[in-house]
Specification:
single chain; 236 residues; alpha/beta; Alpha/beta knot; 9 strands; EC 2.1.1.228; transferase
């Protein structure tokens, strides 16, 4: 079973959106498991203090290395990757999500305040992961994004085995446009090719649309995609 163990100061935030839709159904039927641990349970002193002022001065507070280390150690080490949600982390990409989903789960630390003492990051082998170039109040929402991305790839969660094969990022491109009924919506018709029944032409149209969208919206993805193509298949 794929297991997510969350270390957080706000365990009441979970499962949150993970408890509904695909991830919620999969959680209910035992396809994956969610465990939350309150970092404050390992706090110092009568008030269970978990943070202190930054060494060298500066604003805000920093989560203590000893407190977080105790919280991590209480989980034991079962080989699952240990992640820290952080805006300075490596960007979360679909390839990373697939690798995580293929494993046994993850231990995910949700930071708060100004951050986490660097020494515990190094001492406990935490890999910093970012879901985007912006800053949130804490790592909990980022952890939910990561978990949802992984859970939907678990066997049986999305239904058909190929349900996610043509989604954005799976083949280096953004996903092609989708259409359904009604045939005509506010003078906008479904493209004729999609009603032709010619599967080879439909596949070619979808690939062309995906390439055009990627080229327009994500030049970085397009450049990487082009670099992987044989010279005769490269397009401007």
């Amino acid at each position: 079973m794929w297991r997510a163990s969350i270390l957080t100061l706000y365990p009441e935030m979970f499962p949150g959106p993970l408890g509904v839709s695909l991830s919620g159904e999969a959680l209910a039927n035992g396809s994956w498991a969610l465990e939350t641990r309150n970092i404050r349970d390992f706090g110092q002193g009568r008030h269970r203090s978990v943070d202190d002022t930054p060494a060298g001065g500066g604003p805000g507070m920093v989560i203590r290395a000893d407190v977080l280390a105790d919280a991590i150690d209480a989980l034991g080490d079962d080989g699952r990757p240990r992640l820290l949600m952080s805006p300075r982390g490596l960007p979360l990409q679909q390839a990373h999500v697939r690798a995580l989903a293929a494993g046994e789960g993850a231990v995910i630390v949700c930071g708060r305040f100004e951050g986490v003492d660097q020494r515990v990051i190094e001492a406990r082998g935490l890999t910093e992961v970012s879901i985007g170039d912006y800053v949130l109040s804490g790592g909990e929402l980022g952890a939910m994004v990561l978990i949802d991305a992984c859970v939907r790839l678990l066997p049986g969660v999305m239904g058909g085995a190929t349900s996610g094969d043509e989604e954005s990022f799976e083949n280096g491109l953004l996903e092609y446009p989708h259409y359904t009924r009604p045939l005509l919506f506010e003078d906008r018709a479904i493209p004729d090719i999609l009603r032709s029944g010619h599967h080879k032409n439909i596949a070619a149209w979808r690939r062309s649309e995906a390439e055009a969208l990627t080229r327009e919206r994500r030049p970085d993805l397009w450049a990487a995609y082009q670099a992987r193509q044989p010279p005769q298949k490269k397009r401007k």
